[in-house]
Every structure is written in structure tokens, then in C-alpha cells.
Automatic annotation (TrEMBL):
PANTHER family linked to this entry: INTRAFLAGELLAR TRANSPORT PROTEIN 80 HOMOLOG (PTHR24098:SF11), OUTER SEGMENT 5 (PTHR24098)
Gene3D superfamilies (alphabetical): 1.25.40.470, YVTN repeat-like/Quinoprotein amine dehydrogenase
Record keywords, A-Z: Cell projection, Cilium, WD repeat
InterPro entries membership: Beta-prop_IFT80_2nd, Quinoprotein_ADH-like_sf, TPR_IFT80_172_dom, WD40/YVTN_repeat-like_dom_sf, WD40_repeat_dom_sf, WD40_rpt
WD repeat residue numbers: 102-134, 184-216
Location of the IFT80/172/WDR35 TPR domain: 616-762
Superkingdom per UniProt: Eukaryota
Protein name from the UniProt record: Intraflagellar transport protein 80 homolog isoform X1
Originating species: Vulpes vulpes (Red fox)
Major site of localization recorded for this protein: other
Domain IFT80 second beta-propeller: 300-588
Length: 777
């Protein structure tokens, strides 16, 4: 990825340009110390003077009123705030009319910023004050006051906090009066510029110590640049939070959100005092000290999938290379490309007006349809369909271009969704809520309606990243997520009535990804790269989970690596310095998944015998129990030396009825309530009581015996035997109540138990013979 710079031969402004701001993706306003406000049209290349300000107004900062929030029709900003050196800020219309001028600070007003909703304006000045104003320019409050000038300010993503500079310090102050203020030393020189991104929640700062730094919203350092030759005079996040731009003397740099640099350009600009990203995130404009306005387009983005590499060579042109035969195709578009995604044998490209869907089998005939809103901020792909996110909503389309659904929930803000907070599979859409970060909304892909009985998935901590598995049946769909403690959890998305268990899979997990071919999960865990070959093991037999993992040392990936993709058996990881590392994992677990999904148990056993690896046998054991194939489970457990489990499986085989077998298989996986339910529904009350006795679940055993008026003496006898073994006296009131005046006769009890077992055998054989008769007929 690099920047394509365009700079006019002669500057349009006579003095230094102090600030720039985009109205649409093709129109920019610039303000200069020559008192002119100039409009630039990038389509025609024309510039025109909008207004000449009075000679005593020297503009310092400009920010357009946020557009299209709540008003769907409004496609471009209509007014902006301009701060100036005379202590005032001015509300100016698009046509250049000064609607209002407000005395705001003693000395220059160094920055002014609208919040995301457009309901409040914050200004900061040389007098060290931070003031909040209403939309119409009425003073609401003075948020803070200090002895040094405040050079820069930014709103938090939820518009509830303000970040500002104080010399070498950064301060985050909430608008609530008594809330905790966060303050830390960020630079060794005065901080000149800050920016806070609403999507990634990351903070940028730049200072006179010639460094730029990336922080999280708790003030923890994520990246610290090397010193440049000159002070960093401007920084700005791209709207989607994936890139940022850095400006200095004769320097413009494009960086990834983790800090490493994609491109460095040295245009003849003087210092770049202000950087603004276009609304679609495809180009940047810089306000230059020598009167120029520099424009830079982000080009040469790359997308890779299997043997295809797609490169954006120009604004409207892509090059596709097939590395197997070196065939090259050129794709031309009518408008400039904004976003693209390559996965599942399809390339999806969104331009400013249309969406193109290419198949990797045929690059010549794309499917084209018009977009509803315009600027697409995110494209996600699954095997059967893809998801587009724009300012107006979330839309699901098939690869044939057919609109499928558009999920909605109260208070949905699509402008802050990214690949970590939205996940897509063939049948489910998951979205993490921004208003309450402990909640995940789950939707049916085909209808856009809430999944199951409409219950939300809620967790005890804030959730950072979510990912749906891609394969298997809808009823078995799982979602993995990382919370703010960096713990990895897995749970089922199917939510009917009973609360689904949320089970912890790992700790200190920084990034995760599901394979696109089978349900294998990988993640970077502290200092290890971990692959969960069969994450479902936690629901079947948690004891053998460690045996189903593959782990290797991850120190080679340095600090803060990120998993880019997991295609087939290849995992791509981006290191903190921007380099890509490819890891190949064993292909055998994927083949095992394939055999099991096709119920080819003999082939699965044969594969495990061929590979001779404990992880494979452990995976097969868990898969067999999950699919109720106890013969295969017995072979697999024997291979990993779990003798107690082999014996238990053998005892299950000897049980007389299929309901009993089913119940004991459920118990094997720890689903005791479900096991009990199966027995009670089949009328096997004694067996249900017996499993509670075997588990020392005395309260429940007695409850069932009393409820069904049977085997109360059996429960009391076993309880008495249990207490005698440990030399204890009965203290449970309910047991004392029922034991009163009851003589325990073990002979009688054994006879009753024999009778129950005989009854079950007879029932089982009669149902079997009736089945056979039915088959004969």
C-alpha cells in the first residue's frame, strides 16, 4: 500500500494553509492565513474562492458539522465551525456566510470539534480552557482549566469523554462532573495533535519530541515511533480506524493502526499543519506551510486468497494475478474503488455507487448492482453470501446479487462496526453492541430476525472480539469471543429457553480466527500460538481438551501480532512490524472433520491409525461421543489410555434400553439434567432416581422418589449406607421426616430393583420385536 501524491505547480493560497475539511469525497474546503476559504472540486480540478474573511481573522482549525446522523436524506455537510486567532469561533454555512461568531477564549482558539451526533461542540484555547458549547453556539460548561495552552482536542467514541493535551500530558475527562479523570505523560515534548478513532477506540498523539504514538483508551502505549527529523505537526485516523496519516516538515506518512509504516512520501510542502481524510477513507488532504494543499490517494492495497492476488493499481483499476499460471486480468470500474474483499472464491468490490461481485472462475462478467446508501465501510464474506455495512444499515446479499436481509436492533450505529465486532456465517449474523459491550445480538441470516427466542447473548465482562464458526449444522453453530480480560470463551448461538453455557477455552488470547474449511479455531495466546482442533470437546469431555490442542512458541511473531486469515490449513499472521508470517498446520484434523461430518467412522479410525498422533485420537474420541457413536469412542479412548472411560462405555453397551444408553451417554458428557429428562420421559423413574444416587445428588433423588411415589425406601437405604460408610448421623430434615418409622429391608429393595431392570428389558425387547414386525409388513 502506498500514497499517490498530487500537488499543484503553484499554490492557490498566498500564505500558509492552516486547516482543511472534506464535505463530500470529491469536495474540500481549505482555509489560509491569507483570509481566504477556497473550495476544491477534485472531479473537475477547479478551485473557487468561497469567501474572504475579515483581515483580523486568522483561521486555525475547521471542522464540518457531522452529516447524515438521523437524517437519511442529507448526503453532505451543510456548515462548519472555524476557530480563529482572535479568540472567537465562527459558524459558517457551505456558501461562506458567517452565521454566528462567538467570543470563546482569551487568546487564540486552537481547536474546535463537533461530537459524533452534532449535539455539542468542544473548543480549546491558549488560555488553557476547555469549553463545551451547544449546536447553536451557547456555552454549556467549562469542562477544565489549566495554566498551559491546549493545542488539540478529540471526542471519545460515545461522545461522553473528551481527550485534550496539557503540555507533555494527555488527559481524558468525562463530561459527568465527578467521574474519574485519566491523565498520563505521553511525550517528552509538547503534544501538538491528538485524534481518537470511534471504530477502533484507539488514540493517536504527536509532539515536538518528533514522535507519534498509538494508545488504547486506558492510556496504555501500543506503539512508539522512532524520532523524526522534525516535530510531528499533524496526525489523523482514517474513518474505519484501520490506517492513519502522519504529517511533518516535507513529510507525509501512511501507517497501519498498529503503528508500522506502509509508505513515506517527501512532498515539497513545508510543514503539514492539518490532515483530513475523505469520508470514504480513500484519500487524504494536507494543509501545507507553503500555501499548497497536498492530496494523496491510497493505492496498491492487496487482497490475497489461495492462489489469487488482487491489487488496486489505480483509483478505478484492479489487477488480478493467478500465481499458479501467472495469468493477469485487469478489472476496470466506472467509479473509484472504496472497499474490497476476496474470500470463498469471490471478489466483492464496492465503488462509490455500485457493488461488483466477481467469481474467481470468471473475471470477465461481474455481477453489478446499485448501492442504497453509498460509502461502504465494511465487507464480510461467508461461503453462501456477503455482508455490506454502510452509514444507513447492514445488508446481506447472495453472490448472485439478490438482497437477503437487513438486521436491525435499537440504537444501532453502523459507523462504528468493524471486522472484530461483526461476524458472519452461512446461517447467522452476530453483532457486538456498542451501547452495552457485554451483549452480542444474534440474527438469522435468511430473515434478519433475532435468532431463536430472541434472547441476547450476554457475558459478565465487556467483549472485544467475536467470531462465528463457518461449517457444520445450524443447530451446532458456535461463537467464540475474547473479553476485556483477554479470556477466550465459546458458546452455542442456538438460544431456546434454557441458558446456554458459556465455557472458557483459554486465557491471555489476543487474536483469534476460525478456519474457512472446518470448525478448527486458532489464536495467539500469551507467548504461544494455539490451535483448538475440536473446540466442541468442552461440551463433550472437558478432561481431554488439552489433548486436542496444538501449541507452538509464538515469540518469533514479536509483540502484538494479529491473525489475518485462516484458509485451509494455512494461518497468516501479521507481526507488529507489518511483515506477514505464514504458518501451516497439520492437514489431518481437517480430513478427520470431513470424515466425521459424513459419518465415515471406519475411515476416521483408519486415518488416526495411520497418523499415530494423540491429538487425532483425542479429537476422534470427542467427535464420536458428540455423535453418539460409542464403538468408535471406545477405540479412540483406548488409544489415548483413558481406561476408566473405556470401562464406562462398555457398561453403557450392556444397558437394556436405548433410553438408558442415551441417558448415560449424556451423563458421560456432563449433561445430567438432560439425562434425567430422557429417562423420565421414557417412564424409567427408578433409573432416573438411581443416577442421582450414583452422583450423591441426594436431594434430587428423594424429590423424584416422593414425586412419583416410588422407591422412597430405596433412596433412604442408600443414604443410610452412605452415612454409615463415613460414620455420620443424618441431619437432613426431609430424610429424617421420611425415615421415621420405616424399617429398611435390603432383600425387599434388591427384589424391587431386579424387577425394575427386568421390566426395562422386557419393554426394550417388546419394542424391538414390534419394530421387526413392522419392517416385515
Amino acid at each position: 500500500m502506498r500514497l499517490k501524491i498530487s500537488l499543484l505547480k503553484e499554490p492557490k493560497h498566498q500564505e500558509l494553509v492552516s486547516c482543511v475539511g472534506w464535505t463530500t469525497a470529491e469536495e474540500l474546503y481549505s482555509c489560509s492565513d491569507d483570509h481566504q476559504i477556497v473550495k476544491w472540486n477534485l472531479l473537475t480540478g477547479e478551485t473557487s474562492q468561497i469567501v474572504k474573511l475579515p483581515d483580523d481573522i486568522y483561521p486555525i482549525d475547521l471542522h464540518w458539522f457531522p452529516k447524515s446522523l438521523g437524517i437519511k436524506k442529507q448526503t453532505q455537510a451543510e456548515s462548519f465551525v472555524l476557530t480563529s486567532s482572535d479568540g472567537k469561533f465562527h459558524l459558517i454555512s457551505k456558501l461562506g456566510r458567517v452565521e454566528k461568531s462567538v467570543e470563546a477564549h482569551c487568546g487564540a482558539v486552537l481547536a474546535g470539534r463537533w461530537n459524533y451526533e452534532g449535539t455539542a461542540l468542544v473548543t480549546v484555547g491558549e488560555d488553557g480552557q476547555i469549553k463545551i458549547w451547544s449546536k447553536t453556539g451557547m456555552l454549556r460548561s467549562t469542562l477544565a482549566q489549566q495554566g498551559t495552552p491546549v493545542y488539540s482536542v478529540a471526542w471519545g467514541p460515545d461522545s461522553e469523554k473528551v481527550l485534550y493535551t496539557a503540555g507533555k500530558q494527555l488527559i481524558i475527562k468525562p463530561l459527568q462532573p465527578n467521574a474519574k479523570v485519566l491523565q498520563w505523560k505521553a511525550h517528552d515534548g509538547i503534544i501538538l495533535k491528538v485524534d481518537w478513532n470511534s471504530v477502533s477506540d484507539l488514540i493517536l498523539s504527536a509532539g515536538e519530541d518528533c514522535k507519534y504514538k498509538v494508545w488504547d483508551s486506558y492510556g496504555r502505549p501500543l506503539y512508539n515511533s522512532l524520532p523524526h527529523e522534525h516535530p510531528i505537526t499533524s496526525v489523523a485516523w482514517a474513518p474505519d480506524g484501520e490506517l492513519f496519516a502522519v504529517g511533518s516538515f516535507h513529510t507525509l506518512r501512511l501507517c497501519d493502526k498498529t503503528g508500522w509504516s506502509y509508505a513515506l512520501e517527501k512532498p515539497n510542502t513545508g510543514s503539514i499543519f492539518n490532515i483530513a481524510w475523505s469520508i470514504d477513507g480513500t484519500q487524504i488532504a494536507g494543509a501545507c506551510g507553503n500555501g499548497h494543499v497536498v492530496f494523496a490517494h491510497v493505492v496498491e492495497q492487496r487482497w490475497e486468497w489461495k492462489n489469487f492476488q488482487v491489487t488496486l493499481t489505480k483509483r478505478r483499476t484492479m489487477q488480478v494475478r493467478n500465481v499458479l499460471n501467472d495469468a493477469v486480468d485487469l478489472l476496470e470500474f466506472r467509479d473509484r474503488v472504496i472497499k474490497a474483499s476476496l474470500n470463498y472464491a469471490h471478489l466483492v468490490v464496492s465503488t462509490s455507487l455500485q457493488c461488483y461481485v466477481f467469481s474467481t472462475k470468471n473475471w470477465n462478467t461481474p455481477l453489478i448492482f446499485d448501492l442504497k446508501e453509498g460509502t461502504v465501510s465494511l465487507i464480510l464474506q461467508a461461503e453462501r453470501h456477503f455482508l455490506l455495512v454502510d452509514g444507513g444499515g447492514i445488508y446481506l446479499y447472495s453472490y448472485e446479487g439478490r438482497f437477503i436481509s437487513s438486521p436491525k436492533f435499537p440504537g444501532m450505529r453502523t459507523d462504528i462496526l468493524n471486522a472484530q465486532t461483526v461476524s458472519l456465517s452461512n446461517d447467522t449474523i452476530a453483532i457486538k453492541d456498542k451501547a452495552d459491550e457485554k451483549i452480542i445480538f444474534l440474527f438469522e441470516a435468511s430473515t434478519g430476525k433475532p435468532l431463536g427466542d430472541g434472547k441476547l447473548l450476554s457475558h459478565k465482562n465487556e467483549i472485544l472480539e467475536i467470531a462465528l464458526d463457518q461449517k457444520g449444522l445450524t443447530n451446532d453453530r458456535k461463537i467464540a469471543f475474547i473479553d476485556k480480560n483477554r479470556d477466550l470463551y465459546i458458546t452455542s448461538v442456538k438460544r431456546f429457553g434454557k441458558e446456554e453455557q458459556i465455557i472458557k477455552l483459554g486465557t491471555m488470547v489476543h487474536t483469534l480466527a476460525w478456519s474457512d474449511t472446518c470448525n478448527i479455531l486458532c489464536g495467539l495466546q500469551d507467548t504461544r500460538f494455539t490451535v483448538w482442533y475440536y473446540p466442541n470437546t468442552v461440551y463433550v469431555d472437558r478432561d481431554i481438551l488439552p489433548k486436542t490442542l496444538y501449541e507452538r512458541d509464538a515469540s518469533e511473531f514479536s509483540k502484538n501480532p494479529h491473525i489475518v486469515s485462516f484458509v485451509g490449513n494455512q494461518v497468516t499472521i501479521r507481526r507488529a512490524d507489518g511483515s506477514l508470517v505464514h504458518i501451516s498446520i497439520s492437514p489431518y484434523p481437517a480430513i478427520l472433520h470431513e470424515y466425521v461430518s459424513g459419518s465415515k467412522w471406519e475411515d476416521a479410525v483408519r486415518l488416526c491409525r495411520f497418523v499415530k498422533e494423540q491429538t487425532m485420537w483425542a479429537c476422534l474420541a470427542a467427535m464420536a461421543v458428540a455423535n453418539r457413536d460409542m464403538t468408535t469412542a471406545e477405540i479412540a479412548y483406548a488409544a489415548i489410555g483413558e481406561i476408566d472411560k473405556v470401562q464406562y462405555i462398555n457398561s453403557i453397551k450392556d444397558l437394556p434400553s436405548k433410553e438408558s444408553k442415551m441417558a448415560h451417554i449424556l451423563m458421560f458428557s456432563g449433561n445430567i439434567q438432560e439425562a434425567e429428562m430422557v429417562l423420565l420421559q421414557a417412564g424409567l423413574v427408578y433409573q432416573a432416581i438411581q443416577i442421582n444416587i450414583n452422583l450423591y445428588n441426594w436431594e434430587r433423588a428423594l424429590e423424584l422418589a416422593v414425586k412419583y411415589k416410588t422407591h422412597v425406601d430405596t433412596v433412604l437405604a442408600y443414604r443410610q449406607k452412605f452415612l454409615e460408610t463415613f460414620g455420620k448421623q443424618e441431619t437432613n430434615k426431609r430424610y429424617l421426616q421420611y425415615a421415621e418409622g420405616l424399617q429398611i429391608d435390603w432383600e425387599k429393595i434388591r427384589a424391587k430393583i431386579e424387577m425394575e431392570i427386568t421390566k426395562e428389558r422386557e419393554r426394550s425387547s417388546s419394542s424391538q420385536s414390534s419394530k421387526n414386525v413392522g419392517l416385515r409388513h
